[in-house]
Design brief:
11-stranded mixed β-sheet; globular; UDP-N-acetylmuramoyl-L-alanine:D-glutamate ligase; Protein-Tyrosine Phosphatase, Chain A; 24 strands; 488 residues; single chain; Udp-n-acetylmuramoylalanyl-d-glutamate--2,6- Diaminopimelate Ligase, Chain: A, domain 1
Length: 488
């Protein structure tokens, strides 16, 4: 492509060379530089692309995009483009490189602390029931037609995101629903296009620390960036931080929630309890009036469903298609029911910190189980505080905690278990410790009593266990199947 075309929507200065160049590729990884490419100097946590200027010029890069002064070889005709922020510039350059594919799609972006993953799958299911062809970008995977691509980040780098959009257009997609992380917004991964719909689910303190957000205020501000980059904002009006998140918005706003005063309201919540299955039903009022049932438990399931309904209303999805999708939608590792018995309920969930575990267990207690059994471990080489907190939450809320191994990484599993026990010791909760996760799950199944709810928490959608730098295959669904086969 012509360099001028790639820079069309950016403010920049030409520090060296000329704009009259053809670019063979857009690259931001120095290992992938090729002759006549455009190289974007990105600053990362552990590296800085500006340090590789001489190397990439020697490899044949024709254009450099920089945000700071660099030292060039004495004789070079390489073009140097200076911008205020190279990550911001990369988003627009990437969009131009792939032909601005977002302009050919309806783009739905969902941000919030919890509920993003579940809601993206609900929306995809609903819209496809209504005849649309929908791509998905999220924490678990990217889906393009029949292709499923494992995700490394909730929101990919801008270049990869634009490449996915282009592939979706080529595959005949007319819509994309994506999770938008606070890091993705902070690092400008979602610049270069405008969302048709921006959604806010909820906000709680999370992702605060080295390499993420300096404090809660920054976390909140980054979430709010979505509402300066979308046409219509659909937000959870019940959330205490809602008004702060949408402050300064440039879009129209609709609010949904359980409280009166929202534009779309869920009322008459009823718990649904069937053999081996938990759900909830409710009625919507306001912008849409209908009776709804979902096959996942708890108040947060109502919010997830309400979010999806608020979105799909704008696409003219019929009541029948909405109801059908909500009953059928399943999200791997998100309150995922696995049928093992008519006597008790077993589910898998990704709850891997105290906040999410507490929310899950409190929701399940509302179903008045005979016993609430919680099986979990904690990741190695991560905060010990998380272990203490999760132990304390489970000790307070579960009738029995089964402490086991998660991803020990480079720590000893028993050391992690001992940290969890420190938290449980602050409570009167009963517990057993079984280090091997398969044995722990077998214990939970073998000792299940009529009316029990058993939660396998922490692994969720993950299909591996990471031990000393190696990811070994381990999917809890397969472990359950093996256990049931062995018992039979």
């Amino acid at each position: 492509m012509e360099l001028r075309s790639l820079l069309e929507k950016l403010e920049y200065t030409v520090e060296n060379g000329t704009l009259d160049k053809e670019v063979s590729a857009v690259v931001y990884d120095s290992r992938k530089v090729e002759k006549n490419c455009l190289f974007i100097c990105i600053k990362g946590m552990n590296f800085d692309g500006h340090d590789y200027v001489t190397e990439v010029i020697n490899k044949g890069a024709a254009v450099l995009v920089v945000e700071q002064e660099i030292v060039l070889p004495q004789t070079t005709d390489v073009t140097v483009i200076k911008v205020a922020d190279t990550r911001y510039a990369m988003a627009f350059i990437s969009a131009a490189w792939f032909g601005n594919p977002a302009e050919k799609l309806k783009v739905i972006g969902i941000t919030g602390t919890k509920g993003k993953t579940t809601t993206t799958y609900l929306v995809k299911s609903m819209l496809e029931n209504a005849g649309r062809k929908v791509g998905l970008v999220g924490t678990i995977e990217t889906i393009i037609g029949d292709t499923h691509i494992h995700a490394n980040n909730t929101t990919p780098e801008s270049y990869l995101l634009q490449e996915y959009f282009k592939q979706m257009v080529d595959a005949g997609c007319d819509t994309v629903v994506m999770e938008v992380s606070s890091q993705g917004l902070k690092l400008h991964r979602t610049q270069g296009f405008v969302f048709d719909y921006g959604i806010f689910t909820n906000l709680e303190p999370d992702h605060i620390g080295v390499g993420e957000h300096a404090d809660f205020e920054e976390y909140l501000a980054c979430k709010g960036l979505l509402f300066k980059q979308c046409k219509v904002g659909l937000v959870n009006g019940d959330d205490a931080h809602c008004d702060a998140v949408i402050a300064g918005h440039t879009c129209t706003i609709e609010k949904f929630g359980l409280n009166s005063g929202n534009d779309l309201v869920a009322t008459n919540l009823q718990l649904v309890k069937k053999p081996g299955e938990l759900g909830v039903s409710f009625t919507t009022n306001g912008l849409l009036s209908m009776d709804v049932e979902v096959t996942t438990p708890g108040r947060f399931s109502v919010y997830n469903a309400l979010t999806a309904i608020a979105i799909c209303r704008h696409f003219g999805v019929s009541e029948e298609d909405i109801k059908k999708a909500l009953l059928a939608a399943k999200v791997k590792g998100r309150i995922e029911m696995v049928k093992v018995s008519d006597d008790f309920t077993l589910l898998i969930d990704y709850a891997h910190n105290a906040m999410s575990l507490e929310s899950l267990l409190k929701s399940l207690k509302e179903y008045e189980p005979n016993r609430l059994v919680c099986l979990f471990g904690c990741g190695g080489n991560r905060s010990k505080i998380r272990r203490y907190e999760m132990g304390e939450v489970s000790g307070n809320l579960a009738d029995l905690t089964i402490i086991t191994s998660d991803n020990p990484r480079f720590e000893e599993p028993q050391d992690i278990i001992d940290d969890i026990k420190t938290g449980i010791a602050k409570t009167n909760g009963k517990y057993v410790e079984i280090c091997d996760r398969k044995e722990a799950i077998a214990y939970a199944i073998d000792h299940g009593e009529p009316g029990d709810i058993i939660v396998l928490a922490g692994k969720g959608h993950e299909d591996y266990q990471e031990i000393k730098g190696i990811k070994y295959p381990m999917d809890e669904r397969n472990l359950i199947a093996d256990i049931l086969t062995e018992r039979n």
